[in-house]
Structure formats: C-alpha cells, structure tokens
Design a protein that fits this description.
The complex is a heterodimer of chains A (245) and B (329). Chain A has 10 helices and no strands. Chain A has 245 residues and is mainly alpha-helical. Chain A has one domain. The radius of gyration of chain A is 18 Å and the shape is globular. The two termini of chain A are 30 Å apart. Chain B has 329 residues and is an alpha/beta fold. Chain B folds into 2 domains: 222 residues, P-loop containing nucleotide triphosphate hydrolases (Rossmann fold, 3-Layer(aba) Sandwich), CATH 3.40.50.300; 66 residues, 2-Layer Sandwich (Alpha-Beta Plaits), CATH 3.30.70.100. In chain B, helix 2 packs across helix 3 and helix 2 packs parallel to helix 4. The two termini of chain B are 28 Å apart. The chains are: A mainly alpha (245), B alpha/beta (329).
C-alpha cells in the first residue's frame, strides 16, 4: 500500500511537471497533425486513404512522443540530482522505474489517438479492429518508453539523449514497415527491421485498419511484449550498474 | 541522551575503489542510537563515498554495513525507510513549490495525503519558510534551499538522519539556524550522522567524531577526549605584515621551545607547552621590520587536534570547499 502511494505520487508529479505542460500538450497535438497532413497530401488519394495512413502516423506519434520526453526528463532529473531522491526512497527499483515510465506511456497512448480522432471527422473508421488497435498502441507505447529509458540511462547529458534517440528513431521510420512495407526493403536491410520492436507494432496496426499483416497477431503481440521485458530489464541493469556505482 | 549500548550504524571493513583511486580503504565505526556523530575529513578523503555506501547510492567492494540491525551490504533498500538523507547539494524539484516538494517527499515514504500535508505545514513553520511555501523551489535563496532540503529529509520522521555538509555555502544566520535545528532534532532522539569540513561546527554539535583521511579513519573519539590532547598547550596568533614563513623561521631559530607555523591571511601561530611571552616575540618581529598588527591568545580547539592528527592545514580544507560552493557560513 505504502509503495503504491509513492508510485502514484511519482506518476502525478511527472504528469503535472512534464506531460501536461502547454509545450508538451501542443507537441502531442501538432506532431501527429503535421504527420497526418504530410502523408495525406503526399498520398494524393483523397480522404479514403486516411485509414491506410493511420498505422504509420500513430506509431510515429507514439515513438517520438515517448522517447523524447522520457529520455530528456530522466536525464534532466539525473543531472539535477533530483533523481537521487527517488533512488533513495524505500521502493523497489522496478516499481520506481515503472512509476517513472507510466506517465510517458500514457502520454504516448494519448498521442496515438490524436490522429484517430482527426480521422474520425474525415473518413469512415468503422472498420477499425479496436480489440487489436488498443492493445497494440499500448504495447508500442510501452516498448517506445522503455527504449527512451534505455537511452536515458545510457547518456549523461540532455543533448546526448536527443541525439541518441534519433539514432534509433529515424531508422525506425523507414525500417519498421510504417509507410513502406518491410517486403519492399532490400533483402540485406530486412534483418534490421526484425530486431526493431516497432516492426511488430506496425504490423499489428496495419492489421487493425484492415491491411494485410505479415505475421499472426499473437506472434506480434508476444514479440512486442518480449521487447518490452528485455528493454526494461536492460535499463534496470544499467541503472544498477551506472547510477548505483 | 545517547544510549551507549545500542549501535544503529555498524560499519566493518568498508572499502570502495574507483579505477586507480582507493576512495575508502577498510573503514570501521559504530554510531550509537541517539548520537550526533561527526565524520570529518578534507575533500577527497572518502566522506561522501562512505555516506553513499551507507544510504545505498554506492555499492561497497568489501565490508559490511548494518543499519538498525539490518544487513544493508547486499540489500541497501532494506533500511532506507529508517533513513533521512540531506545531500551536500539541494536536490529538490526546482519547478515545484516548497510545499509541494515536501508533500512529494512525504509520499515517497508512503505517507498518506493528510499526514504529509500536516507535516509539511508543520515543517515550513518550524523552518521559517511559511511565506515561501507557495513559491517555486528554483527561486529560493541558497539558505532557504538548504532549510527546505533538510525539512524534506525529516518529513517522514526518520530514526537516522544523514547530513552531508549541511551548512556549506550559506549565510551565517541560516547556518546558525540550521545548527540549532540539528541540535534540536538530536535532542528529540534522532540519530545524526554529520559530515562537515567546519571543524568548529563539529566541535559544537557532535558527541563523537571520526577523522577520515585518504580513505582511512585515523581517529574516532568523543569530543572531550579529543580535546584533552590540547590540555596544557598555549597558543598565540600574531597578525603581521611581511613574509610569515620567513618570520616563522626566525622565531623558531630564536626560541627553540616554541612551535611556530604560518597560518591563513599572513598570520603566525605560536604554540608551546608553557605560557607564551609576547614581548620578546614582538621585539624580534619588529627587529625584522615586520609590523605586528595584532597578538591574540587562542583557545586550543578541535582544529588543533585535527591538524595534529592529520598533519593537514584545516583552514585550507575549509577554503577549498567554500570556493567550490561559492560562499561560506
């Protein structure tokens, strides 16, 4: 019970301090809007193309929203030493890091549904498979957030967090089947796609909007969940190794 | 009053190495329940590394740590609920108000909303920060930041309070207030582990002191027992114009029974087992064309004991730290 008080307080504090700040809210709205608009105009196929654009736009919104904010806020707190205060609290490191990442996961999920909300006003989205879409968005948000955490514990400066994030994020735009199917990538590049968690999330999102999926949904969910566990475990190991020296 | 029988902190053979540097080299000490224990040493002596190992921010390479009977060597989290920690630099959230910072810290220790709100209000009042309660921590003065950081360290009423350089870099009035607060907390039964480079602060507050130099504890004793080392010593300080080191050599040559050394700000410190006769020394200095600006009898202090034990100049240690922190108490 007592450790849950700490968990909720960390989550609420982060929401108030970082995620619900006007610049981040506007980032959460403008970024997906800009991506949707850009791909909509690029496709030149009219409003009917919106469902097909959704998987890419949703995944990018989650990926950029979560990794940016989490890696920067954790690095910022570590540098200002306020993160030490959390490390010294009588709660397990696992629960502490889950509390620290919960805000970013929620932020990512909300970001993902901004393009869906916009799409609802412009196209018929009655064909969306919500039972696949919602858990897929959630797992993409979790894996992206844990990727942000992994980045945060690997660097010491805020600018390094941004640079290192981009090192992962920009290749993902092209390699994970968001806008360009993995099957259309050069053969030698495809193995890279399959070591990136977003590939499996994007496949699930494509299935949710009625596109053909390359792998069974259960396998995609299982692999995405496995990436979440591995990234979280690696981050915890790095925290113990680098921050509790 | 301290209970002599119960150790709340037991440290045996504690060691920590960073690459080529042996930061802490086999340290042993005990802190009794209700005691105000001072941990003194120059920069780089191993104070902060030791404290970090005790609170769980660093892993020992060797040795054992028991806090209130709990073995924390392998599981530092096990006793963190008993500890209050005030680091050497304020580490609260600049974007939160003073009140919200205290409430958040209370929540980290599992305090309910009602409890932490009431306790935060009580502490803000006690630390004279009521007027600043609604202001963001980032806008506080250095002294206010320090006080709020201490308040955050005791919001959950810990049995053991770790204070790392609590008065460094703050104004004299705030430092005095903080010393009084530490004394009050200890009087109310909190065990206090205090690291400081202000020797006079340790002398005034602590019951026992450990001196650490180059990662090793060179002496642990009660303050009165340490002070006994200075019994029968007579010390004078002369403020002179001219090269203090050359003048010291002249005094030492002329009066071999006196121990003489230059001290900060062009001063000369003269020590003897017998009362020091001022007249001959002043005459000698004037013969050397040095102007004697002041001659004062100095009560031997813990600083003298520190210098005796460690062979270090205590003033230099203080200046170095204050320069780093950008102020002084």
């Amino acid at each position: 019970m007592k450790t849950w008080i700490a968990f909720w307080s960390i989550l609420l504090k982060d929401m108030q301090t970082y995620y619900l700040k006007p610049p981040n809210i506007s980032w959460g709205l403008i970024f997906p809007l800009a991506w949707t608009g850009m791909f909509f105009i690029r496709s030149g196929e009219g409003l009917d193309s919106i469902p097909a654009l959704l998987p890419g736009v949703m995944a990018v919104s989650v990926l950029f929203g979560t990794t940016s904010l989490l890696s920067v806020t954790v690095t910022f707190e570590k540098k200002g030493r306020s993160f030490e205060r959390l490390l010294l609290a009588p709660i397990s490191l696992e629960r502490l890091m889950l509390a620290k990442t919960a805000g970013a996961i929620l932020f990512g999920v909300v970001n993902a549904f901004v393009p869906v909300l916009i799409g609802m006003f412009l196209a018929d989205l009655s064909g969306l498979a919500w039972g696949t879409l919602i858990p897929a968005v959630f797992l993409i948000a979790v894996s992206s957030t844990f990727l942000g955490l992994f980045i945060a514990v690997s660097v010491s400066e805020v600018f390094e967090a941004q640079t290192f994030s981009n090192f992962f994020r920009f290749p993902m735009l092209f390699l994970c089947g968001l806008f360009l199917p993995v099957a259309q990538l050069p053969v030698w590049l495809r193995p890279l796609s399959y070591v990136l968690p977003l590939t499996y999330g994007a496949d699930l999102l494509h299935a949710a909007v009625g596109d053909a999926a390359h792998m069974p949904a259960t396998l995609n969910f299982a692999l995405l969940a496995a990436f979440c566990v591995v990234l979280f475990a690696l981050s915890l190991r790095n925290v113990r190794r680098k921050w509790i020296v | 009053m301290a209970n002599e029988e119960t150790s709340v902190i037991e440290v045996r053979g504690l060691a920590k190495r960073f690459d080529e540097v042996q930061a802490v080299a086999g340290v042993d000490f005990d802190v009794q329940q209700g005691e105000l224990f001072g941990f003194l040493g120059p920069n780089g002596a191993g104070k902060t590394t030791t404290i970090n190992m005790l609170i769980g921010l660093a892993r020992p390479d060797a040795g054992t740590i028991r806090i209130a009977g709990i073995d924390c060597s392998k599981n530092p989290k096990a006793a963190q609920h008993l500890m209050g920690i005030v680091p050497d630099e304020s580490n609260l959230y600049p974007e939160l108000t003073g009140f919200d910072n205290l409430c958040f810290c209370g929540a980290l220790y599992g305090m309910t909303k009602g409890d932490r709100t009431a306790r935060a209000a009580e502490l803000l009042d006690r630390f004279g920060l009521v007027q600043a309660a609604g202001r963001k921590f980032g806008g506080y003065s250095r002294g206010m930041k320090r006080k709020l950081t201490i308040a955050a360290g005791i919001i959950h009423q810990p049995a053991i309070l770790f204070l790392d350089e609590p008065t460094t870099g703050i104004d004299v009035a705030s430092a005095r207030q903080i010393r009084q607060l530490i004394a009050d907390l200890n009087a109310a039964g909190t065990t206090v582990f205090l690291t400081t480079h202000y020797i006079e602060e340790a002398e005034r507050l602590c019951r026992r002191i450990a001196f650490i130099v180059k990662g090793r504890i060179v002496r642990t004793d009660r303050v009165e027992d340490l002070m006994r080392q200075t019994d029968g010593r007579h010390v004078m300080r002369f403020a002179v114009s001219g090269k203090a080191s050359e003048l010291c050599n002249r005094i030492a040559a002329e009066f071999p029974r006196l121990q003489c050394r230059p001290v900060a700000e062009g001063g000369i410190r003269v020590e003897s087992a017998e009362p020091v006769r001022v007249g001959p020394i002043v005459r000698l200095l004037e013969d050397q064309r040095a102007e004697v600006l002041e001659a004062r009898v100095i009560r031997p202090s813990l600083e003298d004991v520190f210098v005796q034990i460690t062979g270090m100049e205590a003033g230099a240690m203080k200046q170095e730290k204050e320069k780093k922190m950008g102020g002084g108490a």
